[in-house]
Amino acid sequence: MSRPRQPPGPSADAQLLDGLVVGSHGRHCVLETPAGERVICHPRGKKLAVVVGDGVRWRPSHDEGTVEQITPRRNLLYRQDAVRTKSFAANLDQVLILVAAEPEFSEHQLARALIACEAAHIEPLIVLNKADLAEPFARAWQRLAPYRAMGYAVLPLAAKPRGPAPAPADTLAALGQRLHGRTTLILGPSGAGKSTLINRLIPGAAAQTGEISQALNSGKHTTTTTTWYWLDEARASALIDSPGFQEFGLHHIDPMQLAAYMPDIRPHVAECRFYNCTHLHEPGCGVTAQVQSSAGADGISASRYRIYSELFAELRDSR
Predict the structure, then answer these.
(1) Whether the Cβ atoms of residue 126 and residue 153 lie closer than 8 Å to each other
(2) What is the CATH number of domain 255-317?
């Protein structure tokens, strides 16, 4: 006599839980559950590289867990070192690029960040800090004029007002409105005031970073840990602190696509005589024809073209 067929048990996928990656270091990560609980997890297999901002499906095991799947990403950003390029943040609504009136910011680093945003279809927001330093701020604001002309949003900020010059009123409040209801990655070089801004926006941020670093056992490598912070109790707005500005990676970009990610260069590509123009040395190039020492409304500044040339060489040589 045949036995009655047993009803199927729960599928493996049905036993998985949802989580959000809020901290990552090496092969360890910290997940946050929908209820707000945080759990240390390890990705299943070496090929499953999770980053902060990832939605994941995970399986609990005693007091830790295992990440089994990464849910589809809306976007992904990279950083690089001398050896390789690594992904480090996902599912962003915008990137806040923090620069300062002093020390003088690197336009090359700013361009790298903007190109990465363009390639990933993420909205960038340039914030110029130290608005309370009148003369340095005026000079830096003028340096950003070409970026405002390209259509990028640029906000003034006085994260830590000081000195006799009055700071523009409500700069922090204006920035807060831009962050509301969004997931924002903050980038900034040393000296720009990123830590000060984070502590103004999120009292107790240092304690949260310490807790995640201790959980991940990252110790002295805390600065390499990308960390997620909630900006409100409703958990509708979030800020992701990144490890370093100079490490921003572009090696995943095809050098022939670089011009498409630079708004002042892109409109002139169609004017080139050759479809596969590199915009470096070809005759009849619509881009080089527009390069000027001081760009007009439709021109390309010499400094921006130099950045394009240097990045093109870097991306070409990395292949």
Answers:
(1) yes
(2) 1.10.40.50
